[in-house]
Amino acid sequence: MNPLIPVGARITDIKTEIEEVKTYTVSVDGVFYARPGQFNMLGYPGVGEAPISFSSIGQNGSFRHTVKAVGRVTKFLEGLKKGDRLFLRGPYGKGWPLKKAEGRDVVLVAGGLGLAPMRPVIETILKERPLFGNVTLIYGARNERQILFMEELRRWGREISVRLTVDEVLYPRSWKHNSGLVTDLLDKVRVAAESAIAFVCGPEIMMRFVCRGLIMRGLVQSHLFVSMERRMKCGIGHCGHCQHYGLFVCRDGPVFPYDEVRGLPDGLL
Amino acid sequence: MTKRLVIKEAFFTWLDSLRKDYRLFGPAGREIQTAFREISSSEELTMGYASTMLSPGKLFIYKPKEELFTFRAEKEIFIDAPPVPGEKQAIVGVHPCDTNAILYLDRTFLGGYRDPYYEARRKNSFIISLNCSAASQNCFCSSVGSGPFLKAGEGCDILLTDFDDMYLVETISRRAEELFNVRGKAAGRKELNIKSEKELSVLGTIEKKVDVRGLDRLFRANMDHPVWQRTAEERCLSCSNCVMVCPTCFCYNVVDESSIDLMSGRRLRHLDACQDMRFAEVYGGNFRQQRAARLRQFVTHKMNQTGQYGVIGTVGCGRCITWCPTGIDLTEMTKEIQGT
């Protein structure tokens, strides 16, 4: 099989999440296995491809991608309609180590669009809730209008601890949650620190401070995992764009143990 | 595996007979620069060349530009996969550094996911390597163990060593043994001793040396060494010459081209370089916006990062030094860090 030739897929649903951000439900013919934290190269012939992580993984070859329209490919995707075709290659990369999280308290920290790759993690945990200990999700967005998956956040809050914060509050009267950085909320997390595991996804500078904050609160460095973003053209460890000091983010990541990527040059972790 | 001494004339006659089934590529031209190109007769070959600007591996196996597929818009979009490259080709006169560079490219394109275009060309390429009889001023292959003589059995089908009016011909692969039917004198201990002497004499002419032991750790401890910033500011033009001529640099970019009526087009890839400003750019930032960071990426990727494939990233061919318009020398930068 030629890994450079994309397969056709069908958009079966589109949901507008927030400004510039849509979730596409996509289905392919046949079986499609993917793990939370992996990604597809989404695109269209004549336009190009972009690496987009799964924001939900369903059965029967159906899955979701939540995409912000910021570049050539993603702006093209924004113009597609339900029923349209798109093309993809994948799934690629290593996902979140959910097996490792079983039997432990779990801390999930997401910033901005970083909640999208975290959603399949949460869905998996909710499906197998007894397998995990205390689960806390800390989610930060720029303001109330930038909060992703608000309905789900409410629903998830019944089974796991969900803490929200925004950098700036637009509507002080209706906002019942926190304001400020996600790192401010780390103190509120109740976990067995020495055994707990943490998954972090967001801007790299945020992940830097979250990981350091978690270590200061007693979590073990090797129990922290981050999902990284780099420019990618191939997704299969060939084109070299995502190279991060000897690592290929597409192939060796995008989810990395924090201690594997901490302090690498040209990164912020 | 056989070793025999063959009169050069007989060898080249055999080589020309290969053209029946193989396209033939080799070092050709004496004016200004010898370059690897397709030849129609062995008479065009310049086997005594010192170095070429471009390496055969990145010309004929990993192509500088490659069509990945074509597409056409009818009621829907259809993708047509190109045929797998099936042409047989023989590449002659490949120096040990460039032979090792092909082995390095194998790690990228055949190590995990297999690139079908590279794989097909690699299989269809009959490689006739040639041990060096002289070193150029920028060669440092002996420091990284990739030359000036090839260790037996590495990366080629046939290995040649110049014995004046003869070649010592070592057949390495099974297909070489089947294909190479020229009679010659079996090489014994005496001839192999002469070969070792020749290797020592070329080794003696290699002036550029660098100690690569412990570079992984040294570089990690010197990410802010002044040599990066100073060289970037005073000399580096970010022109990407170093990357383009490097036989182990594998990075590519992918571009889509559409016809003017948007009804058809193709996706292709072409060589790309980490020295390009936008190479590591993502939405909201650029991980190597600074020229110093890009220069450091190249130098450290070549001189260490053995963690990537378990081998050093350079084969010591010295092309990046030769073709740098401002004469930046990665071995000198390494030595400056080692000296502080």
Written account of the structure:
The complex is a heterodimer of chains A (about 270) and B (about 350). Chain A is α/β, with parallel strands linked by helices and about 270 residues long. Chain A has helices at about 70-80, 100, 120-125, 150-155, 205-215, 250, 260; strands at about 5-20, 20-25, 40-45, 50-55, 60-70, 85-90, 105-110, 135-140, 160-165, 180, 195-200, 225, 245, 245-250, 255. Chain A has a 7-stranded mixed β-sheet with strand order 10-9-8-7-11-12-15, with helices on both faces. A 6-stranded antiparallel beta barrel of chain A has the order 1-2-5-4-3-6. In chain B, α9 packs across α11. Chain B has an 8-stranded mixed β-sheet. The radius of gyration of chain B is 22 Å and the shape is globular. Chain B folds into 2 domains: about 5-205, no CATH class; about 215-340, no CATH class. The N and C termini of chain B lie far apart (about 50 Å). In chain B, β13 and β14 (about 285) form a beta hairpin. Chain B has helices at about 10-15, 55-60, 95-110, 115-125, 140-145, 175-180, 190-205, 215-220, 225-235, 240-245, 290-305, 320, 330-340, and strands at about 5, 25-30, 35-40, 65-75, 75-80, 90-95, 125-130, 160-165, 165-170, 185, 250-260, 265-270, 280, 285. The interface of A and B includes residues 5, 234, 240, 245 and 251 of A.
